[in-house]
């Protein structure tokens, strides 16, 4: 039997994830009282029907004071030969605050205080579960379909999962450095196709811009050195427990050079199995929107 405890921060997408797990064949139970968890595992093990061969149980801060009992319950399950995985959904505090404001809901631990105070209390109370987690997915930058892909990667495709999701992000410095960047690289040292006749209106997704930018040996040297550094950093980030990495590449307007090099870096990293990967071009259309 495959038994998964789905937990994590309020607002990180647990309800959505539980529905996704149901869609891939898990028998799902949300907010099961913790005193019943041990008995539920025993009963599930005894059942031979296919319906209970894959079980997911949602447990989170809604359990209240009973959450303190979960440590010993998990220890007993393990001591009795029971096997389980913990899937922990997380997100950055700023993202969680924004999600609460958008839904106009109050945090279950905030009381009369601000949302961020409730989030801090919740992090403290769930820390032991995150430490025990088999899988950690940071949903800060994930679309719903991307979260689904990560869950399927773990529980359908049975791929090795290293709990690190990387976003390669192109941007324009004139619109500001992305606040969630972990690594920022400036590629304004390369010649700008903006000033080349016939290229201004095109983007780094167009072949003409790619050919222009990549004709310079400095572009390839930059990519080689960047790829080498990232390959060095990733296993160290994984060992340190980091689960979200945003690599930002910027040029003046975020339309030509940064897009081209972000795309090239994505191609070089796309076949790696140690992490999830996606690419975004934050400012690629802003000049067009402003009529420039």
From TrEMBL:
Task: Domain (RapZ-like N-terminal): give its ranges.
Answer: 1-158
Q: Which UniProt keywords apply?
A: ATP-binding, GTP-binding, Nucleotide-binding
Q: Name one GO molecular function term.
A: GTP binding
User: Can you tell which superkingdom this protein's organism belongs to?
Assistant: Bacteria
Indicate yes or no for the key word Nucleotide-binding: yes
Residues reported to bind ATP: 8-15
The residues that the entry says bind GTP are 60-63
Positions of the RapZ C-terminal domain: 166-284
- Read off the HAMAP family from this record: RapZ_like
What is this protein identified as?
Answer: RNase adapter RapZ
Name the lineage. Bacteria, Bacillati, Bacillota, Clostridia, Lachnospirales
